[in-house]
Every structure is written in C-alpha cells, then in structure tokens.
C-alpha cells in the first residue's frame, strides 16, 4: 500500500506529496527495557510500524516523519540499557520537528506514541507548541483505542508493558523484537508501594519499575498471540484513521 | 480541628511541627473563567480548602503550604480574566517550593490539584523533581477519587468544569465563590471538533474552551447541591487520607 | 468601597470592567519567617490588602490580580518554613501573568510589593517584560513612600522586617497575622559582618538573616500600634494613588 | 559478525555485555534533502551502518546506541522535507543519552557523525558534557579519515553532499537510499556568495544550500561506484577502529 | 603601585599571587551613550580604572579580573551605538567568571560596578551565585560611597549620567574619554513621565533615556573638574578599601 | 589611519558613521594561560588589535565593537588564572550584541576571533543568530588565512598556542603582552592521548592542555620575530579585507 514516509523520499518527492498532505504523523517511542523477552527498541519500532500503517490508511493526506526513538523512561533507568530523555528535551525535539515541517507548509500534527511514560510530556508539548506556533496538534497512544479487542483478549489485571497485549502487537507488527524462547509472566513484587499508584487509584506517584516487577515486565507474555495482535492493531487503526479523517475533512480545503 | 497551615504559623511553630510532619501538601489551583456563575479563583480556593481538610485528617503528619493560585489554563485564555502559566513556569515554581521545604527536612510531597489542565504538567514536574532532588512526590486531583458519590449524583454526560459536581463542591467548601442567581447549564456548541477530543476518545488534542461551550461552563450547574458536594468531598478525603496514611506509615520512622 | 478583584469576579464581570480598566495591580509578597510574633504569610497578605485598598482608590481604573504569594527569600531560608523562589522563577511567573492580561487588553502594570528581598528581581523583571512585551510596567514597595509617617513614628535605627513599622501595618490591615502575646524586639547579633552591608553602606553583600538577628525580627515590635499603621498605610496609599492616577490620566483615553 | 546493538538487545543481554563494554558509539545523522537521487534519511542510515561496522571491529568493547536520526540542517531547510534541530536541542539530547548510559556504568563515548552540519555542535556538546559529567567524549565524521581512498577516487573540486563520495558510500552500505535512475551532477550556481565561504577560505559564513546548488547536491553522483564506497568505508573503519582501540587499551582495565 | 591584574599576568605569576589573594574584583561597566561629550566605553573604562586603584590599596589581597565591558543598558538603546545585555546574559557571564576563579581557589568576589542600570541585575546575580556556588559575593557602585565629596561638589538636582560628577571622575581617571570641546548641560525634557519615576519617588518604572534628556546626559558637565573627580574617587576608594579590608581580615586565614 | 571604534565614539559620532557603515566587527578573544612568556589577555588584545587594523582597511564601511574579552577555555582551566565561559554564555552574549546593533541598523557581522577554542561555539552562534535575527553573520580566525607567511616562517610541527606564530604576531601587534626574558619552547608531554586528537586525526576529543604541554605553550616561542609577525598579520589582513569588501560591495547599496 502507499504511504508517504519522509525517511524514504527525496526532496522532489516530498515537494510533490505536499500538494495533498494535510497531516504529519510523528512516531514517538522510547528506548527502554522490556523484560527478558523483548528488545529495548520495542516502543520505537512499534510506533514506527503503526505510523506507517496509519499513513497507508490516510494516504495521500498524511506523511510520516522520522521516529523519535527515545523517550521519557525515568522509571526504567535501573534496568541496564534504558535511555531516558528529560521531558524538556523531548519537548524541544518535538518543537524543532514541528517548526521545520511548518516551514514546509504542514499545519496539523499527530504525535503517535507507543509509550505510556511519554503521555504527560506529549500533553505539555501539545499545549506549548499550539500556543507558540499556531498549529493544530494531536497525540494518541498507538493502540489505546482498541478497547474491544483488548477487553476480549487481555485478561491480566495488571498489563501494559511487555505483557500479552504488547507482545501480541509485536507478533503482528515486528516479531523480530521478541525472544520467543524467553517469554514469561511478569515477576510481580507484592505487596508494594506501587499498588497504591496504578491508574484509577486516588494518588498518582513516581515509582521505579523494579519496585513492581523484578524481571521488568508485567502481565503474561506467554499468552501473546499473532491474532490478538492483529485485532488490537487493526481496531486501533480503524479508530485512529476514522477520527483523524474527520478532522482532516473539516478542513475546507479537502473534498 | 487541628491542621498545620504554613501560612498561619510562625517559624517557631513550624519548627515544633516539623518533629512530626512527614508530608507537605501543596495545593495547586488555577485562575480561570468558570462561567457566569462562579468566580475565577474557584480552583485555587477549592484546592486550598481541600488541602486544609486533608491536613486535618493527616494531622500531625501533614503541613499545608501556600497555594499555587495560578495554573496552566491556555484553553480558557479567550475568556476575560483568565491567567495562564506556561507549564515550564509551573514546574519551576513547584521545584522551588519543594527545594525550600527539603531544606527544612521534608521529603514527601503531595500536589493536591483541583484543575484538570494542570495534571500533565504535574506529572512531568513529579518526574523531574523526583529525579533531581531525590524526594518522594505524589499528586492527586482533589475529588477525582470520589467515584461512588460522583456516579450517584452527577448525571450530565459532559461534566468537569463549573458543572453540578464542581458547584456542589463549592457549595460545601466555599459558597462565596458562587453567583447563586446566575446558575445555568453549559451552553454546549455541537457539533464541534472538541467532541472528538474528550477523555476516552482515540485522539487527544488541544481545543479552546469556547469551541465547546459559549458560556464557559459544561454540565448543569442548576442541579448542584450542598449535600452532593459534601458526599463527593468527604469520599475523596476518605480515599486520599487513607492512601496517604499508608504511605506515611510505611516510613519506618512512624509507628 | 468598590474594587475590581479578579479573584472575586466572573468572566462576564471582568469583561464589563475591562471597558474602564487601565491598570492591573499585581500584589507581590513572600512566604518567609517573620519572627516569633508574625505568621509567615505576612508579606503576601499585606501586599494583597494594600492592593485592594489601592484598587479602591483607583476604581474603576485598576483591577487586582491574584497575589504572588511567594518571593525571593534566600536570606531567610534557615528559619523553618521559609519558601524561596529563584529570581528567574519569579520573573517567569510575572511574565506569564502580564502576558495573559495583555491578551485581555491590559497594557499597564504595577507590581505592588511588600518584601524588600523582591525589589531587585522586580526591577529586572520590569526591564525584561517591558522589552519583550511592549507594555508599561511599574513597581513599588507597598509603604515605602510613607516617609513622613515613618519618620515620625518609627524610631529604631534598624527596622524593616517584623519591626514596629510592619507590625503596625498589620495591626491596621491584617491583625490576624500577629501573635500579640509574643511581641518582642529583634535579638540583634553584634558585632557582625552584616553591619557592613546594610543600605547606605559602601558595600552590598549577601548575608543570612540569622547572622543579624537570632529571633528573625529587627526593630522593636512592642512599639507597634494600630494608629501608626493607619498613618503609614494611608500616607502610602495617598502617594501611590495620586502618582498612578497621573500616569493613567496622561493616557489620552481617559478624561 | 558480532556487534552489541542496544536496539536489538534485552536488558539481560545488555547487563551481560556491560562486563566488557568500554565505549558507547552514538550514531548521529540528520534528516535533510540529498538531491533528487538520495532519500532524506541518508545521513541517519549511513551513520547507523557505519556504527555497526565499527562496533563489529571493536567487539566486545563497544556498544551501539539508538541513532540520533535528525541533526542541525538549517542550511537545507528551504528544500522540502528537511527537518532541523536547534544546536541546543541536539546538545540536550546527547546529554540525556550520555547521562543515562553513565548510569549504567559507561564512561567513554564516541559521537559517530555522518553530517558536516553537526560538527561544531558536537564539538560544543563534547566540551559541555565532559565538563558537566566527567566522562570521556570523542567525535568523528564517519569517513573523513579515509584520506587516501578519497584522494584517489573523488575528483570533483566541490564535493561532500550527495556527491560521488557519499553515493559510493551508500552503494556499499545502504543502496536502498539511492534513486539509481535519478543520479545527476550538482547544479552549481556560480558566481555566488557561497564561493567565498567554503572550507579553506578566509571567512566562514552561513549560506543556504540553494545558493550553491539548485538541485541540492554537489559533486558528480554519476561517478559513484560500489568499489569506491567500499574503499572509503573500509579505510575509515581501519582508522577509527585502530585509533579507538588504542584509547580503550590505555584504559588499564583492558589487557 | 602594585596591583594584581589578571590581564597582565602569566599563569606562573597568577599561581604565585594566589598564595596571598583573598578577593577577586570584577570590574563591571557598560557600553552605552554618554551624551555628546563622552565616549560610549565610559563605564567600562571607569570601572576598570577604579578596580585597579582599589586593587592597589588591597594589595596583595585582591586580584583584578578582565572587565565586563557591556552591561544592562536597555533604557539607552535608542541612542546610536548603545549595546545592551539581557540581565540573564550578564548573570550567566558573572557565574562563569566566578566559577572559573573558584576553580583556582578564590572564594570572595566584588562586582565593582560603574553603571546604575546594572545594580539590580548584580543584586540578583549575587543572590543566585551565593546560593549555587557557596562563595562570598559583594557588589558596589564605584563612587556611590563618596557621599561627602559628592554633597560638597555636585549641585545639580538631577545628576548621575555624564554629569559633572561622572565627567569629573573621568577627568581624574581617564580624561581620554571626554570630548572637552563638547561639554554641555543635560537637555532635560520637562514635564515628563520620568519625573515621577526617579529615585525616591513612590513609583519605580521603566523609561527611555530620551524621554528625560534629548542629548543623552543630565546634570551639568560644564561644571566638571579634575579636583572634584579626585576627591570623589579617593573618598570612595577610602571607603571601599577599608570596608573590604575588614571583611578580608575577619577571614581567619589572614593576620 | 581612520577606523570607527565604538568604544572611542560618542553617540553623535556613531550616528554619523552609520550612514556609511555596512559591517560590525566583533573582536572575540579569551582570557587564558599562554605559558610563562605571555600574559593571559593575549587573545583578547590580539583580536582587538586585528579588528582595528581590519577596520582601518574597511573604513568607512566597518565599525568595531567592544571586545569579547573572555571565551571558551575549558581545556586551559587547570592553569591558574584562566577564565572560561560556557559556550551557551558566549552565544547569548553575541546574540545581545548583534541584537543591539541590529536595532541601530547594522545587518552584517564578523566575529573576528583569535582563539581556536571559540571556533565551534562561534559556528553554532552564527547558525542560531542567522536563523533567529535574519542578519548576515561571518566569522574568521584572525590570522588563519595567512597561509603563505605561516608556511614559510613557522616550522614547528605542533604550533598554535603561544608558539612562534602567536608570539610573532604579538611582537608586531602588542609586544607588551610578552615576557621577553621568559621565552621558551613548549614542554611537550609524549607519548600522550592528545597525540591522537590533534587536527587531521581520525578522532576529535577533549583533552586538558596540561596533558599536552607542561608549561602551557607549544611550538617554539624562541623563534618568534617581529618581521614574521608583520608578514602573517598583513597577509591575513589582505585576505580578510578583500574577501569582506567583496561581500560588502555585493550589497547594492554600495557603489
């Protein structure tokens, strides 16, 4: 299928594409530990693969930028290899990308983010960039909108990092990220302060990932499955593409 | 009831209190429009009142700092009187408060926030302050944990700003904030781009509040009620105090 | 008397007031120790009360913003409870306030400051904000212009912090700040390096407040008196209001 | 051949590798136009491929980090698609990467850079990071040290961007970057201010790339050749690996 | 007379001097218009000359650093040639100087400043540098302490910039700065907003120098005199040196 | 000869000169150790003298600003007396100078730099200032373009800091900088890590100057000679002035 990927285009090809493009999708990932069964580029690669698939659905209105391949991963820093950007660094990086693309005439942006730890920074970035540059900024967690497929297929009470959901997505999108012979459940540490700080609790708070899981993953990766991944990814793409297409079409210049 | 409020104490009284204090509660509000029936200091005042009530429940372990009386309100700026801080300003302000209090020996902090627009900035602040200062940081939306009372009493599908929930809280905590003769429903603007961007939707995105509501409020303030406010506030205080007390007690220095 | 206080107004009320408003008064205080007889919010509260009184005199030309309730108090940090902002934080905070209000059409600002330690930062802020935002900025120490009343009534050679002058002002403006049973003279530490660094000396230099006074106050608070406070405050208000009114009236839009 | 690539490793694998690793190689590229015959990710991809090849030669002493896939490309911004980071953003990004890896015990770093426009920023970054973090920092232009192979094979007087040298390197390292049917000479614009500002001239100065070349490339890409690329790349790798191995071995912990 | 001037010393000479040096004097000037009868480097040169004279008196305890030859001159910017630093730039510059000298073992600093427009920035710099670097910082206006000589010899009600006081100082310290054939009185513009904003008035506020004086000077330069300059300078040096010597001697390492 | 030197002009003289001026030359030096035979202000003084000589040749098109008399000298910091600015400080300083002069109508700038350690920072500054302020920025190493004179007269393989080249330049431009009785060769430390990091090597890297030379100089200062200095300086001035004059004349406003 067709997709405008900036990394794979010459400037003449970009110039031609810009006649139709109404949106830049900026894949935002992370470089962080994903337990013993997933390599550390997981989030960067999944964000990029999702961006391309979304770009295919939004063709010829979307163009995919290079991937932001590191993110805010402070809570994983005690696992070897994790690299973490300060939130202010990530914001400056996104500002520069948006500013450059605005120079080329693009005024609508989607940060397509695969890593939960980036969400609040992206929200702040969206706020600041909108104010300072007068552009339209959106962000989304890659597969968060696949509510049905997740509800049906993911049964761990605690999931969201190198779990059956993420491994399933990777089986569908990027199986090379997985050490299939190492798949294991999260080695959850209970009781623990972290149990008070999960989404939905009265308090939010910072905790190190090793407080929660000794092997760095949660959920049950052994339950991961290509078909589950396919359902989650495709449902998310359905949602993201239809929602974004509505926004693009409101723009009087199209249709 | 007893409560350590820094604004009402002399240094000698602070010195004495610090022998028992294990937590500083920093009330974080905003200065922004709240429709025709609520004054603009609403969030600052409610955060402060909640902080004092929580401080009473956590006495003698908590001390209440001066209130951060302005916040991130970019989306309200087109309504007269709204003041908005850049996220980076709010973060620096919180850093300085935490740093000063750490100098006095306090190492656990709760940002008690009444304004949704601050949440992502507080999350980023928590992340950065924890890393840079080696302290324990938490944050909470004042009454978000009152899930039962809200489910029973708040029936608008769209609520959360100068709605029946917030006005009810104010009737209980600070009725002077309300223009009782001006209570009205949100003047919702539909259809609109904002409908695609509310919590739970596939995309998050920045929109101006006037895109959503012409009078600056949502929900139905005419349904507000003191008793509803009491239930919401007290349920939230139950949750916040019991969760925080667990964290304080894990600290071997107590009990 | 009438006064436009932003914290007590709805957006519709602000909108109406802005037809006449020519000045925003930003009260700037501090949160710092004031000896054993005054609570730590002293400066924030006094700045706010003075601002309202000045706003009454300048009605309907002035509007009062929320109070900047913490300031630059580095020299008091070794007294428990003191919170100090970095000068750069205070400047950013003021920038954001001014920028927001300029968005609403206000172009003249007065930082009404009760705390000596803020003065140089306010001067720098005035300089930078004027340059960057093309607005008219003024600042004033709340009661510094009451030269006659001070000369007649304040007799300590060393005064200016929780002394008879400040306690008298508080007796008139905010008696709840005072621990009347604890009033005492400053416990001055002589000789000391600080004696070389007071206003009027050849050198200026940083010193900690405890180098100068063991109990955190100077002067003689036991000599404070409501009537002295009244005279100082009212003389200052006479001066501030008449000077500011001249500036407002030069503005061709008025009279 | 073996190479430690962080993006392809789990945390357990990283942990094991760190027992031997003495150097992190950070590939630094750019995202910028490369004329009609090369895609815009050229520099990012070539830096990454070179890093892996260098990592193979330095195995098991070197580990390769994720690629910095955008750089300082201000001078190319008028060609569609180019993205440029502010120098300060690139410096902050490198600081965060180095800081994270130092947390894991690595204290020697090589910024392996394929883009001339990054060199001065990397020099500044090296200076600042060394001072602030007490680590050992080096940087190198990927193939600049291949002096013999370049002298023998590259005959354009003006070369260095999407020229026969760079296309030859790509033919050897990443032929998918090339539009083989579009290969063309630089469309050089003479006379021009830029002729006074090339390396070796008395003055250095900023000029836009389109001042120098209308199609965005210089030199003569039609002369590019796999074998030339092989010679340049391998000579550079010989030099980089032997020089770096000397530095690693001076470190008493090895051999 | 002897004076340690860093600009005139080799590193070996500096090394020897540091055995006795207890203070670095940093001359801080400006580059700004001084009316038709004084060149624009006036403040930089006078600060430097005063620093050397003070260094002679404090020999061998003081060392003179290079001169900060530009300062905060926003209010003079509309006169051709004036260069103004942002306050934050001046602060960073001073931080770097202090930090470097602390590296060499110096822990006491005097910013010897000839330009009124720098004073509040120096106060802020002193505050921040003291906090961040744990050094002892002082600042002084070069001749402000010569109260007797000024009271006796300077009779203009408005003076302080290229007036009889400053020209007299220059006649004594650096007569080459003066255009003797151009000496003139300030061309004062009255009435004017500035009259409300001079020292001692109820309000402080930013005004452009051309609002106050058309030719850029105030006072009456035609009354300037070498002997007046001598008296002012020498009285100031008496005060500065005796005060500073007291501070140096308190330091137990001396005498 | 005539030269517009801002430090020696009144504002009226500047105003008159600006009718013809097309370029501001900003001398950029350093304050750092130069071995036992040269004082630490060497670079600042040489940059200033070169700027004046270049200004004479470009009269009446060039104006000389005050000298940036400190620079980036991290690598010399372990020699007593050296002062080093952070690169970001130097950039901010240059921004403020350029911004002020742009206010006066100047739009072309040359950073005339005598210190190698500043070059990359100047390159970054040029990049950022050009982008942000839309001015024309150039920079040059003072005598680097004197290739013939250097090739003929300088025979040390390692030279460039307080060597026969620099001392010769000083003999011609500023002999007061030299301790003629202390002239000596560099006390080179071999072998050493630095030998791998000199210009032309495969790797660039940070090293401390004392790693390379014990006495702080390189080359052979005893071979310095006034005539060599004259040839180097004059050849460089020939090149700089002719190149710059071409750029000035392209500007249609001239000739």
UniProtKB/TrEMBL annotation, chains A, B, C, D, E, F:
Q: Which SUPFAM superfamilies match?
A: Creatininase (SSF102215)
> What cofactors are annotated for this protein?
Zn(2+)
Domain of life of the native organism: Bacteria
| GO BP annotations listed | riboflavin biosynthetic process
> Which key words are in the record?
Hydrolase, Metal-binding, Zinc
Of which family is this protein a member? Belongs to the creatininase superfamily.
Q: What is this protein called?
A: Creatininase family protein
Q: Supply the source organism for this entry.
A: Siminovitchia acidinfaciens
């Amino acid at each position: 299928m067709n997709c405008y990927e900036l990394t794979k285009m010459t400037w003449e090809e970009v110039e031609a594409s810009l006649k139709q493009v109404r949106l830049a999708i900026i894949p935002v990932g992370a470089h962080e530990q994903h337990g013993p069964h997933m390599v550390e580029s997981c989030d960067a690669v999944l964000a990029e693969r999702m961006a391309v698939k979304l770009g295919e659905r939004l063709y010829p209105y979307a163009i995919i930028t290079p991937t932001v391949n590191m993110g805010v991963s402070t809570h994983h820093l005690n696992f070897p290899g994790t690299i973490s950007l300060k939130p202010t660094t990530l914001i400056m990086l996104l500002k520069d990308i948006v500013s450059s693309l605005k120079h080329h005439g693009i005024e609508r942006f989607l940060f397509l983010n695969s890593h939960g730890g980036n969400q609040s920074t992206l929200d702040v970035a969206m706020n600041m960039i909108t104010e300072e540059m007068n552009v339209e900024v959106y962000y989304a967690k890659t597969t968060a909108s696949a509510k049905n497929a997740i509800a049906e297929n993911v049964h761990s009470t605690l999931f969201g990092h190198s779990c059956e959901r993420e491994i399933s997505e990777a089986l569908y999108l990027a199986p090379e990220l997985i050490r299939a012979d190492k798949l294991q459940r999260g080695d959850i540490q209970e009781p623990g302060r972290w149990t008070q700080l999960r989404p939905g609790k009265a308090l939010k708070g910072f905790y190190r990932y090793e407080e929660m899981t000794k092997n760095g993953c949660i959920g049950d990766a052994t339950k991961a499955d290509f078909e589950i991944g396919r359902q989650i990814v495709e449902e998310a793409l359905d949602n993201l593409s239809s929602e974004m297409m509505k926004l693009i079409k409101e723009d009087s210049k199209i249709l």
